Recover the amino acids of this structure.
């Protein structure tokens, strides 16, 4: 099975939890895009006439709008029923690294505002320890980016500004620093340190935000709620 | 003496610590503006030919440039020797509430990057407990502002969006929520909670950032270093 096929299967399984009338958060990225398409399909079938959607990025807003999904804002709906989003790395505690697509700030705000946050991944994203497979994205204001890069290096990371001399800009027109910390001993402790940095707008450590996980592999999709034993899908 | 006269006296005393060749941070606000003018005056006298300045806001950049001060960026100079800035409230531990002028994010980045952060105030800003005299400014991204306003209310604050329906925009085009917490028991603890909120870009609690304080009152100016007993200027 191709990677896209696995992503599609995870997305379809997650969209099965969507019911009519929900306020939905739409994640950014290639896996979430399959969920957006599936939601639109169910809506065209007439089964979800009363949903409204809050996209996590300008790109997702365009995609969803093109498919005819009704968009709204967190301003109008500050409480989200269910969000489906991808992740770059998932650990045994269901904590995450996100932000590979650059939408980490809005994804985190949406996750925080969501009653239920369903993370969809293929099995390759599962990891015994965050930081093993993916460098942590950190969004910083351009004004202080170099100070923050130095601070992150002093915390033990190897830091690259995404895009190099032609820097990638987030939807808020900030930079992203990709920070290779290696395996991260305590995501919660590192999150607190990063949160305290004045020029850090957001970082990709999502601690205690996911409520559900759907993992797709060659043998099918599995759904886990927070607190489940994930060792089976991590060892695979 | 007028309030402006006191501010000017505090600013002049602080500018006495500036020496040639320094990288200087320029604070935002009416008190800091007197420091900017005094630095420009000393420069015209020929005593500070080798300084460079990093302004904390677009407004200060314009003011300083108009006075002929040489500007630079944190990008070019990520280590600042000395910053002079105002504050809205100062407690006995020399912790601060700042951000009344809306430049809190850059002021905090600059304070953090400064070897020496001199805070200049008139005596009316001294307070036994932060939050007694001034509502805490919190900069939030527009995308999630209402979620953050509700989260701040649940932390015990009465929250007003600055500018109301015609919202004030920071230099980063974010909103400011003025949060009346009443007297704040532990500024460090509240700071950690605010730092952890995903939609909060910056907040006005400056904990352990000031190294020096200059207080102007009817009886003259006093200079304190961090760790000094400030009870004398607070009781006045």
């Amino acid at each position: 099975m191709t990677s896209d096929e696995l992503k599609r299967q995870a997305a379809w399984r997650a969209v099965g939890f969507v019911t009519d009338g929900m306020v939905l958060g739409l994640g950014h990225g290639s896996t979430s895009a399959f969920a957006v398409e599936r939601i639109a399909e169910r809506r065209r079938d007439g089964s979800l006439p009363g949903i409204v959607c809050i996209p996590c990025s300008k790109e997702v807003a365009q995609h969803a709008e093109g498919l005819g999904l009704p968009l709204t804002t967190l301003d109008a709906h500050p409480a989200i029923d269910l969000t489906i989003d991808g992740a770059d790395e998932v650990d045994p505690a269901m904590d995450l690294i996100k932000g590979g697509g650059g939408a980490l700030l809005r994804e985190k705000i949406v996750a925080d505002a969501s009653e239920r946050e369903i993370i969809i991944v293929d099995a390759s994203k599962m990891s015994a320890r965050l930081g093993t497979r993916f460098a942590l994205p950190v969004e910083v204001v351009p004004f202080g980016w170099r100070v923050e890069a130095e601070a992150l290096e002093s915390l033990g990371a190897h830091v690259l500004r995404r895009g190099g001399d032609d820097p990638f800009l987030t939807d808020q027109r900030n930079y992203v620093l990709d920070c290779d910390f290696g395996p991260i001993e305590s995501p919660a402790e590192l999150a607190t340190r990063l949160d305290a940095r004045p020029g850090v707008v957001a970082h990709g450590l999502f601690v205690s935000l996911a409520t559900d996980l759907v993992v797709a592999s060659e043998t099918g999709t599995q759904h886990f709620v927070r607190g489940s034993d994930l060792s089976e899908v991590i060892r695979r």
Helices of chain B lie at 3-15, 30-44, 58-66, 104-112, 145-154, 187-195, 231-235. The domain at 3-123+207-219 of chain B is CATH 3.40.50.1360 (Rossmann fold). Residues 92 and 230 of chain B are 5 Å apart (CA to CA).
